[in-house]
Design goal:
Structural class of chain B: mainly alpha
Helix content of chain B: 55-70%
Shape of chain A: flat
Mean pLDDT of chain B: 89
Mean pLDDT of chain A: 84
Distance between the termini of chain A: 22 Å
Low-confidence stretches of chain A: none
Radius of gyration of chain B: 25 Å
Radius of gyration of chain A: 19 Å
Strand content of chain A: 25-35%
Number of helices of chain A: 3
Structural class of chain A: alpha+beta
Number of helices of chain B: 19
Number of strands of chain B: 0
Order of helices and strands of chain A: EHEEEEHEH
Strand order of the largest sheet of chain A: 2-5-1-6
Oligomer: heterodimer
Largest sheet of chain A: 4 strands, antiparallel
Shape of chain B: elongated
């Protein structure tokens, strides 16, 4: 059990890879600069462990027959374009960070999901019974 | 990373990719470049900015282009040739002199494609801004005081025209070069004027347009195909007029006249470059309108203060310009020079003598000039009515504010004078 910190991990999932079509090169550069500064700040603050963007190509495997379908699977608007891995105190704090996403105005949606480090039941089982005094 | 890196690289990339796809696939080149910039935007924040961002963008765009060439049937025939060309470039690495030269050739080819006489002039200018200068539709619309939809339509029509008329991606040679160069220079001047005429704080992008026009003209002047006296004269004209832009408005965005401008704000570096190109434009015996315009700008730029401006020389240049170009706007500017040399009464006379003056009847500057002359003659009542009319016709807020101020001055003088002393109508 993690006793040193009450922080836990959250993923920010960025969707909406199609928002950029109408942007000019200048706007793309400005957006990138703002995004880079945002990411770097979160890293420096220790609230972000890392992140990456996802390429558009994909393969989707499903079913007993292990069908392979070449992506992109989802509509560009819905497919995940990138993620941040956050370490923060609460879902609310993670959501506050998501609100700072510089491309919200361009159609990006950000989903915040907690990462469950361990199965909740096993975690409970590992916990000693606590008696509130 | 420099401020407009993406914009500037975009212009180079579109040129190079058009060389790969052909002029009829200009849109494809533009789309691929957009994709490459987006790829940078999506990966650089995580990986950091590459050591040579321009080379990164070039290689990414070329790889994307190669994917398309391999995938699309229409390129099958040319495929081995294109692949060899792209891979050769990759080996040379970014920034190699050979590669830089090839990029310049491609940019010039695209310049000739965009400025082809079969494309309407306003569409030529918009297309050059979009493809060669890397401006977005919104930015072009702001510069042309137009809507995004109208600009998008103009661009689409221009691209269609290139396809339908099979306009080539090449630098013309032989006798065709001279006439095509004229066309390119006219479009570049149009571009510059578009940015210059209203760069008074209404929209920042307009000064950018001037800078882009200068950039393209520099490219043309440095290239063997365009290195000719009129090109240097055109470049001198842009530099010498553009140099004064920083002083054209005060901190509140009000327009300042030449005599009111802080000359220390004039861009010395541009003036020096302008004078240098004016010198190079003197080679040969051709005297173009660009030469005369540049000469006039040089007179202003080299005067230590307003009082020492060589108006006689300016008038002489306008006289020659009027012989070559009978436009009433030139005649109006000449009248200002006349007034500065011979006094406002002679200036008024010169305005009245303008043939085709009716063409100016809805041009705000006609009334602004008339108002100025009448005010100098002490006819404040008449001057006020001219300034009033000018303010009604002016399109830009900064111009309207400037004229309103002149009107207030006239009215102030009228109030402080006895009725008998007021000018006669």
């Amino acid at each position: 059990m993690n006793t040193t910190s009450e922080k836990s991990d959250y993923l920010l999932l960025f969707r909406g890879a199609d928002w950029h079509r109408g942007l000019s090169p200048d706007e793309i550069q400005k957006t990138m600069t703002v995004w880079m500064a945002w990411f770097n700040r979160l890293i420096e603050e220790g609230r972000c462990k890392g992140g990456q963007s996802l390429g558009p190509d994909s393969k989707v495997i499903s079913g007993k027959a292990k069908n392979v379908v070449d992506g992109p699977y989802a509509e560009a608007k819905e497919s995940v374009a990138g993620y941040f891995l956050l370490t923060v105190s609460s879902l609310e704090e993670a959501a506050e960070i998501a609100k700072e996403c510089p491309t919200l105005g361009y159609g990006t949606t950000v989903e915040v999901r907690p990462l469950l480090a361990r199965c909740a039941a096993s975690e409970m089982a590992a916990k000693p019974a606590v008696v509130h005094a | 990373m420099t401020e407009h890196l993406f914009r500037q690289e975009s212009g180079k990339l579109v040129s190079v990719l058009t060389g790969i796809f052909g002029a009829d696939r200009l849109q494809m080149a533009e789309d691929v470049v957009q994709e490459a910039l987006i790829r940078a935007m999506q990966t650089w924040p995580y990986q950091g900015i590459p050591k040579n961002p321009a080379a990164w963008l070039m290689q990414t765009a070329k790889n994307m282009a190669l994917d398309i060439v391999r995938r699309e049937k229409r390129f099958h025939e040319k495929q081995p040739e294109i692949i060899a060309e792209v891979e050769e470039g990759a080996g040379a690495g970014g920034g190699s002199p050979m590669l830089e030269g090839e990029i310049k050739d491609d940019r010039l080819r695209l310049m000739f494609t965009c400025c082809h006489p079969l494309i309407p002039p306003d569409a030529q200018a918009a297309l050059a801004l979009k493809t060669l200068c890397g401006l977005g539709t919104t930015e072009i619309a702001a510069a042309f005081l137009s809507t995004e939809a109208a600009i998008a339509k103009r661009l689409t029509r221009a691209r269609q025209r290139i396809q339908e008329q099979k306009i080539p991606f090449e630098i013309p040679s032989g006798p065709e070069l001279a006439s095509r160069l004229d066309g390119v220079r006219q479009t570049l001047l149009l571009l510059f004027n578009e940015g210059y005429k209203a760069s008074s704080g209404e929209s920042l992008v307009r000064e950018d347009i001037c800078a882009e026009a200068i950039r393209l003209t520099t490219l043309l002047a440095e290239h063997p195909a365009g290195n000719q006296p009129p090109t240097h004269a055109l470049l001198a004209l842009m530099l010498l007029n553009g140099a004064r832009l920083p002083a054209r408005v005060d901190s509140d965005g009000n327009i300042l006249r030449l005599k009111e401008q802080d000359r220390t704000l004039w861009n010395r570096e541009m003036i020096v470059r302008g004078i240098m190109h004016l010198g190079r434009s003197a080679a040969g015996d051709e005297l173009s309108e660009y030469h005369l315009h540049a000469g006039i700008a040089a007179c202003h730029d080299t005067a230590a203060d307003d009082a020492s401006t060589d108006w006689r020389q300016i008038l002489a240049l306008y006289d020659r310009l009027a012989e070559m170009d009978d436009s009433p706007v030139i005649a109006l500017n000449r009248a200002v020079a006349v007034a500065n040399v011979h006094g406002p009464a002679k200036g008024l006379k010169a305005v009245k003598a303008i043939s085709g003056r009716s063409e100016l009847s809805s041009y705000y500057l006609l009334y602004a000039v008339l108002g100025e002359f009448e005010a100098q003659l002490g006819n404040d009542l008449v001057a006020a009515s001219h300034f009033h009319r000018a303010a009604q016709l002016a399109e830009l807020k900064s111009e309207q504010a400037f004229l309103a101020q002149r009107l207030v001055e006239c009215e102030g003088r009228l109030r402080s004078q006895p009725p008998a002393a007021r000018g006669h109508l």
